[in-house]
Design brief:
This protein is an alpha/beta fold. Among the domains are: 48 residues; 181 residues; 141 residues, Serine Threonine Protein Phosphatase 5, Tetratricopeptide repeat (Alpha Horseshoe), CATH 1.25.40.10. 39% of the residues lie in helices and 17% in strands. It contains 24 helices and 21 strands. The strands form three sheets. A 15-stranded parallel sheet has the order 1-2-3-5-7-9-11-13-15-16-17-18-19-20-21. It has a three-stranded parallel sheet with strand order 4-6-8. Strands 10-12-14 form a three-stranded parallel sheet. β2, α7 and β3 form a beta-alpha-beta unit. α21 runs parallel beside α23. The longest helix has 34 residues. The radius of gyration is 34 Å and the shape is elongated. 31% of the residues are buried.
Length: 654
């Protein structure tokens, strides 16, 4: 007992000593901190604040942050510390783009920057980690130049498809050497988004299902047989968003191919139909739940739209075809299935086609349409007011009208105005519903001024007319047209005209970069690309560059069409080069391209400004001999020339 008491006292004594030492140490720390200077106290506080808090975060959160960075930046974080070294390989998102990874990939002499080698190295390092957490959820491979499908197939087979939610493949190579999609992908139970573009061959099994697929994009892919697309769509029971770009060039291996979209759950459909009306390929669409529909391309007589009662928003960009007599009626019939839309966007070409079918008695009325947008090349010759007025007549409850300039939707029709002899009635919506009009990309051209004048004249309840002026160098030098627009008569006493200077600047200066990038990507620019580029630099006022673009397309062996010539002749007209414009007409005929009324109007206007009345008459006679039909603008130019050269009393006896 005595021994136990002694041991207990010894333990208590040691504990008291330990507590006393701890208290003395704490008193010393407090005393030392109070004795520090303010500078040292701040330094100690900053040192505590600069601790690496990010590195202390869990791996799952760090990899989620890295997933938002480009793959190159994500890999670069591995040099920060040993803590960061393996994290980039655990990122659940891989965006492997040739442009981002290998910026010098177009230099074939540089063997150190091959896209295949870089991606293979990334794949090797990533696969060195067994069962990464989280697993790969999104894989994006964009290979634009010298694509080797064998490598892509190898990378896909090395991927754990079981957990993949999004797959995006954009492969550019010969359409005769596509990569066949691995069959394991057709049985993925986790895939939500699938985007396939160009050199990909689809040969689906007869029976499979993609139970979670909601978004599908198929852009210029090839199909094994005529039923491949239907088989894929039937295997997507919850599909919501479908984008199809069908190009006739990629269907040459099939004698028959029908696009049949019969998906009960589909909400959004974007169909780009680059197939000539005379071809044997057709499309049929039956989607009762569809709410958004975007169509661009040609129409075939057997194309079918049916059961689209819920479409509330649509974008229609129909291309013209002169080979079919009743093409305008086909377009009206096509539009008839969209009678319940609330918001509609039309290209100016589509609007003009509808004008030429306006005499058909079964034109539909869009009773629910409240917003209408026209988008296209509105600076150059087209019967703008008549096209707009016709559609306004078919939309009695329209509240918002938007007009937007765009070079990217092609040229306008080279056809005479069908309403010269028979003017339209005043649209019902102009007197009771139209309250807002937005004009984006206003250039101050005569056609635009007339369009705005007519809208202000007819719209009785218009409250806002907002005009956004295009801010390109050429237009900045034009006289201000605010005063002229402000003088236009307005039917609505509450209408306010608001100008927004310089806020609309369509990308004109980047055409050269785009053409160069197309060449780098292995895509040969066609005459349409060069025509758009030519129009861009002319409107920008860079006429020297316009000459270079025109010479380049000739060197490449591209055959300019009448629209290309018209754009170039317009550039010569802007330079007051009348003689060069007339010589260009001669060159057109030598190359087998017949001038049209737009060509004639441009030259006539130039001769009118120069006071060359006799040459105007000579040009008119030549155009008549060539069978060129004139429009209202042609006669107006001739009358203006007579007013310049002849006294007004003589004009009464002409």
């Amino acid at each position: 007992m005595k021994r136990q008491r002694i041991e207990t006292e010894a333990r208590e004594r040691r504990e008291r000593q330990r507590i006393e030492r701890a208290e003395r140490a704490e008193r010393r720390n407090v005393s030392s901190e109070t004795c520090l200077s303010p500078v040292r106290q701040n330094a100690q506080t900053n040192a505590d604040d600069n601790k690496d808090i990010i590195s202390s975060l869990p791996d799952s959160l760090l990899t989620h942050i890295l997933s938002f960075l480009p793959i190159g930046d994500s890999v670069s974080t591995s040099i920060l510390s040993s803590r960061w070294r393996p994290l980039w390989a655990l990122v659940p998102v891989l965006n492997l783009s040739q442009v981002a990874l290998v910026k010098r990939y177009f230099d074939e002499k540089n063997d150190n920057f091959k896209f295949a080698d870089v991606v293979s190295r990334i794949w090797t390092l990533r696969n060195a980690i067994s069962n990464p957490i989280p697993p790969l959820h999104k894989l994006c491979i964009h290979w634009y130049n010298n694509c080797l499908p064998f490598y892509v197939d190898t990378w896909l087979r090395a991927t754990n498809i079981r957990d993949l939610r999004e797959l995006d493949l954009h492969l550019l190579t010969s359409p005769h050497q596509p990569m066949e999609l691995p069959r394991t992908l057709y049985f993925s139970a986790s895939l939500v988004v699938l985007k396939l573009s160009f050199a990909i061959h689809l040969n689906p099994p007869s029976a499979f299902v993609l139970p979670c697929l909601r978004i599908l994009l198929l852009n210029c892919v090839t199909f094994a047989n005529c039923d491949s697309l239907s088989t894929i769509l039937n295997a997507c029971p919850v599909l919501l968003d479908l984008t199809l770009h069908v190009d006739e060039e990629y269907l040459k291996n099939l004698n028959e191919f029908n696009v049949i979209v019969l998906v009960a759950t589909l909400k959004r459909l974007h169909l780009r139909w680059n197939v000539q009306p005379s071809s044997k390929y057709i499309f049929k669409i039956n989607t009762p739940a569809l709410e958004y529909f975007h169509f661009s391309g040609y129409l075939n007589g057997d194309d079918v739209l049916e059961n689209l009662p819920n479409v509330v928003e649509c974008v229609i960009q129909i291309e013209d075809c002169d080979l079919i007599n009743d093409y305008a009626k086909r377009v009206w019939d096509f539009m008839g299935k969209l009678c319940n839309v609330i918001s509609m966007e039309l290209s100016t070409i589509t609007a003009q086609i509808l004008c030429h079918g306006s005499k058909y008695e079964d034109r539909l009325t869009f009773h629910n349409l409240s917003s209408l947008k026209f988008c296209g090349s509105i600076w150059f010759e087209w019967y703008a007011w008549h096209a707009v007025q016709l559609l306004l007549c078919q939309a009695p409850k329209l509240q918002t009208l938007i007009i937007e300039h765009s070079f990217l939707l092609g040229s306008n029709l080279n056809k005479p105005n069908p309403f010269l002899e028979e003017p339209l009635d005043v649209p019902e919506c102009m007197s009771s519903h139209l309250t807002t009009c937005l004009y984006r990309g206003f250039g101050g051209y005569e056609i635009e001024m007339e369009l705005v004048r007519q809208i202000l004249k007819e719209a009785r309840v218009l409250q806002t007319m907002k005009i956004t002026v295009c801010s390109i160098p050429k237009l900045k030098n034009r006289p201000r047209f605010h005063k002229e627009l402000s003088k236009f008569r307005r039917s609505s006493q509450y209408c306010q005209i608001a100008f927004d200077e310089g806020c609309f600047a369509e990308c004109l200066c980047g055409f050269e970069e785009v053409l160069n990038q197309m060449k780098v990507d292995g895509i040969k620019p066609d005459i349409i690309c060069y025509t758009v580029a030519l129009k861009g630099v002319i409107v920008e006022g860079d006429f020297g560059k316009a000459d270079e673009v025109f010479d380049e397309l000739l060197v490449l062996g591209l055959a300019p069409n009448v629209y290309t010539y018209n754009v170039y002749v317009y550039g010569l007209y802007e330079q007051n080069s009348v003689e060069a414009g007339i010589m260009m007409i001669v060159s057109m005929e030598e190359l087998g391209c017949k001038p049209d009324m737009i060509t004639c109007n441009i030259i006539l206007d130039a001769l009118c400004k120069a006071g060359e009345l006799s040459r105007m008459r000579e040009l008119v006679r030549n155009m008549i001999d060539k069978g060129v039909e004139f429009n209202f603008r042609t006669y107006r130019i001739m009358l203006k020339g007579l007013l310049v050269k002849v006294k007004l009393w003589k004009l009464c006896f002409v």
